[in-house]
Amino acid sequence: MSKRVIYDLKPVNVKQHNRKQHLFSFQELIPVDERILSLCFTKMVQTEDAIEGVLEITNTGIPHSVPTGDYGYREVLVAIELLNTTGHVDDYREASLFVELKTALHYKEKRMIPFHFTLKENVCTIRAKMIRTSLNRDISIVLAEKIYSH
Fold it and tell me: H helices then E strands: how many in the chain?
């Protein structure tokens, strides 16, 4: 007959440490830096009922194309937004940069994106952003941003 040994294990008092949950967004990992991607509003013309101009985007500090890579979905969205006095988007224009479509922005390249908006009473600001997006556009990382107030 074999013998079995049964141990009576009592719980030991273990001091519980307060563990903090570290939460951060992807955006905090990539700071917006004009030395890397430059946005500039030029040729701005405003009339009573419209505003138009050109957004210049320049890859000033990334030594490869934007976007870059060989695997997965790679899109950088250039959004130009007309904001009202409360900061909400009243109208917008967008352009996409893709490696596959040969629209990626290369190192030291400058690209011009013309835009035109019909003005309404409560608009005061134009905001331009370059945004790295996911396939479903549920994840967005702002790579560059510029504000123009008229």
Answer: 1, 7
Interatomic CA distance for residues 95 and 104, integer angstroms: 11
Alpha-carbon 50 to chain mean position: 27
Q: Please, what are the domains in the chain?
A: 33-149 (2.60.40.150)
| Structure tokens that stand for 32 in this block | 């917006």
Considering all CA atoms of the chain, what is the largest pairwise distance in Å, rounded to the nearest integer? 101
pLDDT digits (tens, 9 = 90+) for 25-82: 444 445 556 678 999 999 999 998 999 999 999 999 888 889 887 676 788 999 999 9
HEC assignment per residue over 63-74: CCCECCCCCCCC
pTM here is 0.74
